[in-house]
Design goal:
Layout (H helix, E strand, L loop, with lengths): L8 H9 L4 E2 L3 E2 L25 H25 L2
Antiparallel strand pairs: 1-2
Length: 80
């Protein structure tokens, strides 16, 4: 597949459901998949991180840092 071609929805669904793309059944790892947050195996359960995609990992780290900063800010405002 050419890098400029986008995979079809059918291909994306196959990747998400393929057990070879899941490490220990819970970590999604597919270098062909360029989506930042692909759906979980069971789509209604939300999204996951593609650990083969650097942008996906950086986005997840950014979200975690943001949440930690919000919690830290709230906790420091509570202090007497």
């Amino acid at each position: 597949m050419n890098q400029e071609e986008k995979p079809s929805q059918e291909t994306l669904d196959q990747w998400s459901k393929d057990p070879k793309n899941w490490i220990w059944g819970m970590f999604y790892y597919n270098p062909k998949d360029k989506r930042i947050f692909p759906p979980k195996k069971i789509a209604w359960m939300g999204f996951t991180t593609n650990f083969a995609n650097t942008k996906s990992i950086l986005a997840m780290i950014g979200i975690l840092i943001f949440v930690a900063l919000v919690i830290l800010t709230i906790e420091t405002k509570k202090a007497p």
